[in-house]
Amino acid sequence: MPQLDRITFDPQVMGGKPCIRGMRITVGTIVGLIASGAIPEEILAEYPYLEAEDIPAAFSFAAWRSSEIEVPLARP
Question: Is 22 left (phi over 0), alpha (psi -120 to 50) or beta?
Answer without folding.
Answer: left
